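Quick one, T. Sequence first:
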Amino acid sequence: MSEKPLISLCMIVKNEEKNLPRCLDSVKGVVDEIIIVDTGSTDKTKEIALYYGAIVYDFEWIDDFSAARNYGIEKAKGEWIFILDADEELEENSKKRVRKILRDSKFDGYEIVIRSLERKDSLALFHDEKILRLFRNKPAYRFENCYHEQIFPSIIAHQGKITISDLIIFHYGYTTDTVQGGEIRQNRAIRILKRQLQQNPNSVYYKLALSFEYYNTGDYDSAYQLILDTLINNSTPALANIPQSMIQQGLIILGDVSIKKKEYQNAKEFADAGLIINANSTFNRYCYSTKALAQLLEVNEFISAKKTKSNVLLTEINLYKDYLLQSKNIFYNLLQNRDQTIEARNRLSEWIKNCDDLYNQLEKISFLQELDESITQMEQ
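Structure tokens:
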């Protein structure tokens, strides 16, 4: 009798011929079985999957990610299910540790760091989020939600034990606007989420998810109002099963839109609320950056009005400096090497230069000097 496979990789794909080889190369020697659920590829995705030894199943797309995920899981024979998307890859050092972690494991699921690389024009190079991607293959463990699908509710509901791992998956999806099949990411998301909200009008999860997509398309007023109604104006929001990172992201968006509305005090208060949600989150850099920018713009208004005494203005500028330094410290602590540090330094410098009115007064902000010193140390 043959031994049961340890790990089954389960994926859903459509027209991923450009991404799939990188993804599957990253799990060579890690997984015992590859289950590919194809939702209608017209390129060479299936041929590539078969070349890597995958078992490919066709699945008619019904705008439901959980349905597609669960279909693949039902075909898997491994003791553990490992979830990857085609625009992801398992980090090299993590690759060496996965099987060792699972042997004799007492847990039912592992959260993995999803390191999403950002666009070149973003202040941050990447952001991290812990998501449950590795779990035991049990019939009771199935995905929920048609969009931003989740597996942890079903594991928790059946008293499963979940822990946090230090494994890392690189995610490249945010560097492009298109998704599987070539559809624009936000268009697909808004379409699916609106339909789900018609069926579940009180769902906090779907409301927040939809507000994020509004924000990504530049519909800031709709995003702001939906988040405000869901998190702030709702006296008893059902937040128990909502990820902290999702709530924090909503507060960050409220802060950013408040800045656009020139409501700077509100922006700082929303950012502070975001910091309270999770003091150790990698999203905190955005909270501090929001506070810094709101403070800077507030100072600019003081200067323009010419009504502020010099000692008050100095206090406001020092607050700005403190917020920016906090943002820098969180950002810098996540950097991995000299090249990223240099890129971070240049981006932060350009960010300050865009604040023309105060740039000359803030030239001596110490974090640029600190970053330059750090780069010098790396070269020694």
